[in-house]
Amino acid sequence: MNGLINYVSCGALWLGLLVKAPDLLRHRRDPYLRAICAVLGLAGLCFFLGAPPTVGAVNRLGGVPNLAAPVTYVAITGYCAASQVLIVHWRGGPRVRRTARRWMIAYAAVVLGIATTFALGDAPVERRTDLDTYYATTPYIAQMIVLYLLAHLITVTVTAVSSLRWACRVRGGLRTGLVLLGTGSLCGAGYSVAKLVAVGARWSGRDWSSLGTTVSPAAAGLGALLTVVGVLVPLAAPRVGEWRRARRTYARLVPLERELDDLLTRRTLRLPRPRFASPTTRLMWRQTSIHNALSHLDAYFDRDLYDRTREGVLATTGDPERSEAAAWAAVITAAVRQEADPGRPAPPPGAGGRSLDRVPGPAVLARIADALADTGPVPAVPAVPSGTTTAGTA
Q1: CB pairs under 8 A, 24+ apart, for 266-269?
Q2: CB–CB of 109/118 below 8 Å?
Q3: Contact between residue 174 and residue 98 where contact means Cβ atoms under 8 Å apart
Q4: Which of 202, 87, 228 lies closest to 154 in space, CA to CA?
Q5: Residue ranges of domains in the chain
Q6: How far is CA 244 from CA 14, 236, 239, 241, in A?
Q7: What pTM was estimated for this model as a whole?
Q8: Smallest Cα–Cα separation from 117: which of 134, 142, 137?
Q9: Enclosing H/E stretch for 111
Q10: 265 — phi, psi (to 5°)?
């Protein structure tokens, strides 16, 4: 595949970084966001540097055989440090900064160790895919390999345990994200373990280099995919939930908009329909069009009809919300008919309308639409003769 898995994994991680970048720009001083972006960016860099074509390019540009190895190992160690800092901020507590600083110092020591052992060792033959097993018995180079693998294994183990343990205490999108992140970290542990086993086999005289060249990249690629999805799911879950609610409300408002359709078209009150818009934007468009129609009908609203209908439905059902929706449905239906009747003169300015308590809000609009969907146009409740009472009223 010549590095295809590496580049695909890198692309997935950097795509996640691109999604998070706007939040980071708005909240530059948020250490949690900085840690998330560092994890995504450095993980993608690790895959990019580890691809055989990139390895060859780094070695050629640097003029040193296998220079790409310590460069990649340093990037992996930086990813480890960012992951541990992220875990520290997840856990919280009074000593977050101190603990994060200690992890960074520890991994800085690992970076220094990688640079020192590579400088002391001798690796003259370029190996783009199997350097770990090829130089597993070479002094100093072997120590460099084991050092970065152990640092990576410790990091992914801590991340997996912390994520899965926390997932047991939360629900929803955060729990899904933590489970995915923990599982991705376990796959990352498979990367380190497979390479360590291959190195150990080389020490005992066996050749298990295929573990490092096939199993490890596959485990790392799967881990990268799960990690980026795990980071993005908790961020996307609230928005997806909002869009789902907006779609449901948008569909619920159809009967009310249908009742007002002739008025909206005849009076040109409907706004231009948005194209390629989110469910939230489309819902706002429909609500705005409905409010435009209701504002136009304001002078035609009949307070007496509203009160009679509300009291009658309340006496029958005992449900205040349902009675309010039915009253609004009756008033709107009557107002639409009156406004469309060419034989009736328009009411004088300031008549009717605002004598009602308020213009219905988004939640009431949905209930009005439900009332229209259940019964069709709501018939007007006849006026009560003077001196009598309606059922259920004093």
Answers
A1: 266/340, 267/293, 267/296, 269/293, 269/296
A2: no
A3: no
A4: 87
A5: 4-247, 253-375
A6: 27, 12, 9, 5
A7: 0.70
A8: 142
A9: helix 96-120
A10: -75, -45
Residues in Cβ contact with 114 at an 8 Å cutoff, skipping those fewer than 6 apart: 70, 73, 74, 77, 144, 147, 148
Q: pLDDT tens digit string along 179-225? A: 998 999 999 999 999 999 999 999 999 989 889 888 988 898 888 88
Q: How far is CA 327 from the centre of its chain?
A: 40
The DSSP H or E segment spanning 2 is: none
- Can you count the helices (H) and strands (E) in the chain? 15, 0
First CA to last CA distance, the chain: 84
CATH topology of domain 4-247: Rhopdopsin 7-helix transmembrane proteins (1.20.1070)
Q: What's the rounded Cα separation, in Å, for the pair 116 and 330?
A: 83
Tokens found for residue 18: 């691109």
CB contact burial 176-212 (16+ within 10 A = b; e otherwise): bbbbbbbbbbbbbbbbbbbbbebbebbeeeeebbebb
Residues 207 and 209: their CA atoms lie apart, in Å, by 6
The SS3 assignment for 155 reads helix
CA–CA separation, 147 vs 370, rounded Å? Answer: 66
Tell me how far CA of residue 344 lies from CA of 229, 298, 300, 335, 378, in angstroms.
62, 16, 11, 12, 21
Residue 141 CA to residue 138 CA, distance in Å, equals: 6
Total residue count of the chain as it appears in this document: 394
Per residue in 241-268, pLDDT tens? 899 999 999 999 999 999 999 999 999 9
Q: How many Å apart are CA 217 and CA 145, to the nearest integer?
A: 16
